[in-house]
Write a structure and sequence with these properties.
alpha/beta; Aspartate Aminotransferase, domain 1; Aspartate Aminotransferase, domain 2; seven-stranded mixed beta sheet; five-stranded antiparallel beta sheet
Length: 444
């Protein structure tokens, strides 16, 4: 069964899919690949593959170092990528830091609190650095996260609490799979120093109430840290306009290469954050006794940076922009993926032996759906569901998706997750349904 898609016409979708070479392959079962694991990592269009190869073939050199032509060209490519990627999320170029992934970006932010707290306890900071009280934690201060966090936005804060004596608190999740803000006024107190949360849950798919959480943080002067990994690749996001202070996302989920992540932060905050990694490139002056550091973003980019990956991610955001007139492609991606999500949710609603986690209205979600097969007369482990789908050529994610506490909240050990990208089509939903009906036939 096929449907008319919002976002792209059938002809446009066919042309879009042709830009992704991997979609033409078959799986070990001899079936065409149906890739539905973009929430874990996205596939890459030819524009990205070509951009990386072209850089290595024509401009490869260490950036911000040599005075020769190749080094100048490589530096230009690297900084052009920074400007384009920053523009994609509504930010100025000097507020974008390149890291190796979003996990490193979030650890960089968490490290700022434990390091600045240590400086404050000692009574001084290294030369050229200041002890900004916004990053100082004292015994009993509080860090607020949510029960829906990916481990990358949970474990670093647990570690900060262990090192500083701060207390970790969290916003609970309702049975319906949305954040329960009914007790937010009690959770955000005068001791709250950080509010950190995912813009979109990588399990529940739901969008966080950013406005409410930011307003609560502002009332007490807390900093807001956003995990934007599941939002930036799938809908228009203007990070400064959201009112958050720092945000992280990854390149490999954004049609870009692996090995590159992004940290965005307000300029005056990045000035106050101490460096995470030290060495070459991030320095201003080095003597045997001490060193001073370059201004942001270079302060956070020690060593030879991931230049080819930045060039590839630049190509990815230009590809996404180009999917619509006047650079509006990401809005069309959102509409396209939401139509697919609505169709999948509608079909799963007719299967009483399938339970969906999270909001049941596609308007409240990004393009991913996690579910369990556990009806009254049928219970199939997610790993078995995933294997049956794999036999059909359908690639989905199974497990706890780096969100163990959230799965415990719903009393399940694992879920099956379907996550869409711009290259998916209605027949991909049909393939999932065929696999689920096969599971019922085998295990029912």
């Amino acid at each position: 069964m096929t449907t008319l898609l919002a976002g792209f016409s059938p002809a446009e979708l066919e042309a879009l899919r042709a830009q992704f070479p991997i979609l033409s392959r078959t799986t070990r079962s001899g079936r065409p690949l149906v890739y539905l694991d973009s929430g874990a990592t996205s596939q890459k269009p030819r524009a990205v593959l070509d951009a990386e190869r072209r850089f290595y073939e024509t401009h490869n050199a260490a950036v911000h170092r040599g005075a020769h032509q190749l080094a100048e060209e490589a530096t230009d490519d690297f900084e052009a990528a920074r400007a384009a990627i920053a523009g994609f999320v509504g930010a100025p170029a000097d507020e974008v830091v390149f890291t190796k992934n979003a996990t490193e970006s979030l650890n960089l932010v968490a490290h700022a609190f434990s390091t600045t707290t240590a400086y404050a306890a000692r009574g001084s900071a290294p030369a050229g650095q200041a002890v900004d009280p916004r990053f100082v934690l004292t015994e009993g201060d509080e860090i607020l996260v949510t029960e829906a966090e990916h481990h990358a936005n949970l474990v670093p804060w647990q570690e900060v609490c262990a090192r500083t004596g701060a207390v970790l608190r969290w916003v609970p999740v309702t049975d319906g799979g949305v954040l329960d803000l009914s007790g937010l006024d009690e959770l955000v107190t005068a001791r709250t120093k950080v509010v950190a949360f995912a813009h979109a849950s990588n399990v529940l798919g739901g969008l966080a109430p950013v406005t409410d959480l930011v307003a609560a943080a502002r009332r007490v002067g807390a900093l807001v840290v956003l995990d934007a990994c599941q939002s930036v690749p799938h809908l228009p996001v203007d990070l400064p306009s959201l009112g958050v202070d720092l945000a992280a996302f990854s390149g490999h989920k954004l049609l870009g290469p692996s090995g590159i992540g992004v940290l965005w932060g307000r300029a005056e905050l990045l000035e106050a954050v101490p460096p995470f990694l030290t060495g070459g490139s991030m320095i201003e002056l080095v003597r045997m006794e001490r060193s001073t550091f370059a201004p942001p973003p270079q302060k956070f980019e020690a060593g030879v940076p991931m230049t080819a990956q930045a060039v590839g991610l630049h190509a990815a955001v230009e590809f996404l922009r180009g999917l619509g007139p006047d650079g509006s492609g990401i809005a069309r991606v959102e509409a396209h993926e939401r139509a697919l999500t609505a169709r999948l949710l509608g079909e799963l609603a007719d299967l009483p032996w399938v339970r969906v986690l999270g909001p049941l209205d596609a308007a409240d979600r990004v393009g991913l759906v996690s579910f369990v097969v556990d009806g009254p007369d049928l219970q199939v482990h997610a790993h078995d569901v995933g294997q049956l789908l794999d036999d059909e050529g359908v690639a989905v994610r199974v497990g706890h998706h780096c969100a163990w506490p959230l799965h415990r909240r719903f009393g399940v050990t694992a879920t099956t997750r379907v996550s869409f990208g711009p290259y998916n089509q209605p027949s991909d939903v049909d393939a999932v349904l065929r696999g689920l009906h096969r599971a019922r036939a085998l295990f029912g």
